[in-house]
Write a structure and sequence with these properties.
Strand order of the largest sheet: 2-1-3-4-5
GO molecular function, one term: kinase activity
InterPro entries: CheY-like_superfamily, Sig_transdc_resp-reg_receiver, ST_Response_Regulator, YcbB
Organism: Paenibacillus bovis
Oligomer: single chain
Protein name: Histidine kinase
Number of helices: 13
Number of domains: 2
Keywords: Kinase, Phosphoprotein, Transferase
Length: 305
């Protein structure tokens, strides 16, 4: 099932061209078009499309103003900016406002198809992640899979560390102290054949600490140290991906890992922080989401050897 689109542009030829490309390429359905920002706001709030293609420069209300107005009114769709503007500062401002992609004028069919295909892929990744999280409570099926594999044709075993090291490399965290702790958590989850809800983080930290500490006091102290090491490591991954996104928003590593491991709002905030040369030591990261996704991605790769 394709995405739904709304096109907002004061040029009727551009609207018609984009609509034809979307329909002929079977990228989705155009649920509305508008000649300006004010009309577009009304139509978008009524039709609630998945994606808004919006012109930057319009006579009544420019694209960024329209986007901010839509955000204030609770619209949470995705935006693709249509523009001739090449100024990097203005482009950066657009990204920080919630724009995920640009389509340059004059309109080029190949570029439109490429950009909207990437938008669709991002939507599929987000949907995939949502489904993974909602199905965590049903991971007991992994136990059945493990039993079936005992009678299946043997395959070359792969360790969890072998599987996740390339992921660490792509996230820019190889060598970070927290990687050892994260790998230990992955191994622990794998050994348990994790079923049911994802365990609390404190339980994971204490489980790892207990594997090499003896007294309750030592375990508690080490669990807190593990938490800090992992938080620093995950923050480093966030910073690495945000830096890639600032220099090349279409970089495959950024496109795959950023929306998969982090909330887009956190990525955008980190990009803004880097762009403004600020050092916010309290960057927001969801460690639980990071560990959940890493475990499920590693598990998927181990099962598909």
């Amino acid at each position: 099932m394709g995405l739904s689109f709304c096109i907002v542009d004061d040029d009727p030829a551009t609207r018609a061209m984009l609509e034809n490309i979307i329909r002929e390429s079977k990228l989705g359905e155009v649920t509305g078009t508008a000649r300006g920002g004010e009309e577009g706001t009304r139509i978008i709030l009524e039709s609630k499309p998945d994606v808004v293609l919006i012109d930057w420069l319009m006579p009544d209300q420019d694209g960024l103003e329209t986007i901010m107005q839509l955000q204030r009114q609770g619209f949470r769709g995705k935006y693709v900016m249509i523009s001739q503007i090449e100024n990097q500062e203005m482009v950066g401002e657009a990204y920080q406002s919630g724009i995920e992609f640009f389509i340059r004028k004059p309109i080029n069919r190949i570029e439109v198809e490429s950009v909207l295909s990437r938008v669709s892929e991002h939507a599929e990744i987000r949907q995939y992640l949502h489904e993974l999280k909602s199905s965590l409570s049903r991971l007991d099926t992994l136990n059945l899979l493990s039993t079936e594999r005992q009678t299946a044709v043997p395959v070359r075993p792969r360790s969890i560390s072998e599987v996740i090291r390339p992921i660490y490399m792509n996230l820019g965290i190889v060598g970070e102290a927290g990687c050892n702790d994260i790998t230990a958590i992955m191994e622990m989850l794998l050994q348990r054949g994790q079923a049911g809800p994802f365990p609390p983080l404190k339980q994971l930290y204490e489980g790892v600490a207990a594997s090499y500490k003896s007294t309750p006091r030592e375990v508690d102290k080490e669990a807190k140290a593990i938490e800090q090491r992992i938080r620093r490591t995950v923050t480093t991954a966030l910073t690495h991906l945000a830096s890639i996104g600032l220099t090349d928003y279409g970089n495959p590593k950024f496109e795959h890992y950023a929306p998969l491991y982090f909330d887009f709002e956190d990525i955008r905030a980190k990009m803004k922080e880097i762009d403004e040369e600020r050092d916010d030591s309290k960057s927001k990261v969801s460690i639980k989401k990071f560990l959940q996704v890493l475990y499920l991605e590693a598990l998927d790769q181990m099962q598909n050897v």
